Automatic annotation (TrEMBL):
NCBIfam families on file: FlgC
InterPro entries assigned: Flag_bb_rod_N, Flagellar_basal_body_rod_CS, Flg_bb/hook_C_dom, FlgC
Residue span, Flagellar basal-body/hook protein C-terminal domain: 95-136
Organism: Thiospirillum jenense
Keyword Repeat found: no
Biological-process GO terms, alphabetical: bacterial-type flagellum-dependent swarming motility
Pfam family, one: Flg_bbr_C
Protein keywords: Bacterial flagellum, Cell projection, Cilium, Flagellum
Residue span, Flagellar basal body rod protein N-terminal domain: 8-34
Subcellular location: Bacterial flagellum basal body
Gene Ontology cellular component terms for the protein in this record: bacterial-type flagellum basal body, rod
Protein name: Flagellar basal-body rod protein FlgC
Protein family per UniProt: Belongs to the flagella basal body rod proteins family.
Amino acid sequence: MSDIFSIFNTSASALLAQSVRLNTVASNLANANVATRTADDAYKPKEVLFQTVLDEADPDRAAMPVRVAQVVDSPAKAIPYYEPNHPLANEEGYIFRPAITVVEEMANMMSASRSYEANVEVMNTTRQLLQRTLQIGAAS
């Protein structure tokens, strides 16, 4: 029976991790076109780092929960754009925007969303199996 609950634990941890990933993608997309006067002031895109959690109760490591280890700033440098008429342009006529590729962020969002949906489906299937097992036990 503890194996069944480890499935719920693993899926629940994955749901939480993918939720953080979706929020991070949303933040990156919201700031993709924010211009600044200097490269240092530009928004730093965020990346989520996952880590598996070792479970001493599961020596076979059949179900390993995941957690968000860190949300880190991307090492990518801000991109300069020559726009001398922009109100934030520096003395040389440049503004800086974060190094965010909208297509890449959309792919990350789709991947996180699909992973989230898959883990919801795992939890629903496990719940249905538990209900059927209880029905079989009650019928005996």
